[in-house]
Specification:
The chain is an alpha/beta fold. The chain has one domain: Indigoidine synthase fold. It is built from 13 helices and eleven strands. Strands 1, 2, 3, 4, 5, 6, 7, 8, 9, 10 and 11 form an eleven-stranded mixed sheet that branches. Helix 6 runs parallel beside helix 8, helix 10 crosses helix 13 and helix 11 crosses helix 12. The longest helix has 27 residues. It starts with a strand and ends with a helix. The relative contact order is 0.15. It binds pseudouridine-5'-monophosphate and manganese (II) ion. Manganese (II) ion binds next to loops.
Amino acid sequence: MKHYLTFTEEVKHALGNRLPVVALETTIISHGMPYPQNIQTAKEVEQIIYHNGAVPATIGIMDGKIKIGLTNEELEEFATSKTVEKVSRRDLPYILSTGKLGATTVSATMIGAALAGIKVFSTGGIGGVHREGEQTMDISADLTELSRTNVAVVCTGIKSILDIGRTLEYLETQGVPVIGYQCDKFPSFYSRDSGFRVDFRLDVPEQIAMLMKTKWELGLNGGIVIANPVPEAYAMNRREIENVIVQAIQEAKEKGITGKQVTPFLLNCIKQMTKGKSLETNISLVKHNAEVAAKIAIALRKIVDVK
Ligand code: PSU
Ligand code: MN
């Protein structure tokens, strides 16, 4: 299995010496943000992880390998390529065996991180059950991955392009704890509240590390969602963004967008309709998640040797 992975020297050294490492995804770069904000944010997020005392490992697929850690040139390629594919668990064998360029979603990044021995992963928002998912069965592979792969995902909840209530029900069924980091409410990405509560609130990284250790020592395989709300100063009005989302979903329906195109299509519509305002919020929350993830990775290294 391991021969499908390649590491940068830095990440290899960090993992070999039990230094705290934080995984990062590439779909957020290739399909989640426009150029050049995507590459700027990718680099800044890595810097934030260094400044907080951990080592970043951005994960992506190139030349038949899952790369654990990317050079600046490789990051640039993900940020600018017009042919980069969006890769979830289903797409991994095809993209690897054909040697194509593949940006990893939350599900594929979790797989790469777990194979590499990385337990903490930072992103923006995870996928979920789409609105009307009970009819379309459009349920992100991120959720099934969270049910089986031992990685904690620091995120700002999910965008309300999704059905937040059903997503939380699904996570409960699959045994995935949803932790609020210093919050009681489950955030809805652009705003700090979704109308739903988190399962459990924890206020310090050490408590989260203890929960991770406990879950996995018990053999309760699967991920953990750590919901970290957008900083107050960047939060958007829930009603304002809801109108935009309803319009975006309508447009996707009219254009007959389905499958893995749905999420990138909606993200792009929202970006255009809010004229860059949503992008600023997006960038701010991604940076905040990186900081919290670094702290959790450090706390985890201090308490145990979690396998
Ligand atoms: N949600 C966001 N931004 C993103 C994504 C989701 O707010 O960039 C990306 C992530 O990579 C996530 C993926 O794993 O979309 C989910 O896609 P789908 O809904 O097709 O499973
Ligand atoms: Mn889908």
